[in-house]
């Protein structure tokens, strides 16, 4: 198998883990976003969940970088270029790693559809030196969704470049496992032959879950729908806020409110 195929072995799991953590974050947020004075412990819990999501999302990006023709370092630099992504990928992740990161510092009240809603504000972070890193003006919830949608977009591009799926990929994995056994100390030739025979008994029509790429499109559809109808972008700066929904395609929702 080539490096793209090896990286893909862990990609689906990494992205599904990130999706699970993002869903947990959204659920936590939905539980208190319309409360006038949510408990600090609930905001802290949301921050911890965002921390975990950032870590998981970065792991998926590193796998995508390894499978990219441009190389991991160049890929990650390019991906971080949109406003706010570098905060999540480097500044926030470094702060978490060094034990000083609380990515959500609190919130402000905004008006949406005639109701008061709590917008979660990203924290300024310090990595141990004299400089403080200014957080994005965008609220933490919509930023997390935009970040994850960008990860999914890169995943679709990655899968599109693998023309040999599924058969060559599956046979490659089988051979890769056998080669790994041969390189392991104390594994006898008879054990390797037994493993090979067991693999040959797997029905030819069987295709492992991670070879099926349809799940990516389903995820994109789900999170774009949430982004364009449930979780607006809230830009917070200079004591004011601007609220809007992004547009994906001609039929997407497009609401804008300015206080």
Describe the overall structure:
This protein has 259 residues and is of the alpha+beta class. It is 56% helix and 13% strand. It has 8 helices and 7 strands, in the order H-H-H-H-E-E-E-E-H-H-H-H-E-E-E. It has helices at 3-32, 40-66, 72-80, 85-97, 140-160, 167-182, 189-200, 214-229; strands at 104-112, 115-122, 125-126, 132-133, 233-237, 240-244, 256-257. Strands 5-6-7 form a 3-stranded antiparallel β-sheet. A two-stranded antiparallel sheet has the order 1-2. Strand 5 (233-237) and strand 6 (240-244) form a beta hairpin. Helix 1 (3-32) runs antiparallel to helix 5 (140-160). The protein is elongated, with a radius of gyration of 22 Å. The chain starts with a helix and ends with a strand. 30% of the residues are buried. Mean pLDDT is 81; it is low at 250-259.
């Amino acid at each position: 198998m080539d490096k793209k195929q090896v990286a893909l072995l862990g990609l689906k799991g990494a992205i599904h883990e990130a999706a699970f953590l993002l869903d947990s974050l959204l659920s936590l947020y939905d539980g208190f976003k319309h409360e006038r004075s949510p408990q600090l412990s609930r905001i802290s819990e949301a921050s911890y969940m965002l921390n975990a999501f950032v870590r998981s999302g970065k792991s998926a990006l590193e796998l995508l970088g390894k499978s990219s023709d441009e190389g991991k370092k160049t890929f990650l630099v390019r991906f971080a270029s949109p406003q706010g992504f570098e905060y999540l990928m480097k500044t926030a992740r470094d702060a978490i790693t060094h034990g000083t990161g609380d990515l959500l510092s609190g919130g402000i009240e905004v008006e949406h559809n005639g109701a008061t809603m709590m917008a979660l504000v990203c924290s300024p972070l310090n990595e141990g030196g004299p400089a403080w890193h200014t957080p994005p003006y965008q609220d933490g919830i919509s930023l997390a969704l935009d970040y994850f949608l960008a990860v999914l977009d890169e995943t679709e591009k990655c899968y599109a470049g693998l023309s040999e799926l599924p058969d060559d990929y599956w046979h490659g994995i089988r051979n890769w496992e056998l080669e790994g056994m041969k390189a392991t100390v104390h594994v006898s030739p008879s054990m390797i032959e037994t493993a090979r025979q067991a693999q040959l008994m797997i029905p030819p029509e069987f295709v492992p879950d991670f070879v099926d790429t349809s799940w990516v499109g389903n995820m994109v559809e789900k999170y774009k729908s949430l982004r364009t109808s449930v979780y607006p972008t809230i830009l917070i700066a200079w004591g004011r806020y601007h609220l809007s929904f992004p547009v994906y395609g001609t039929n997407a929702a497009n609401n804008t409110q300015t206080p």
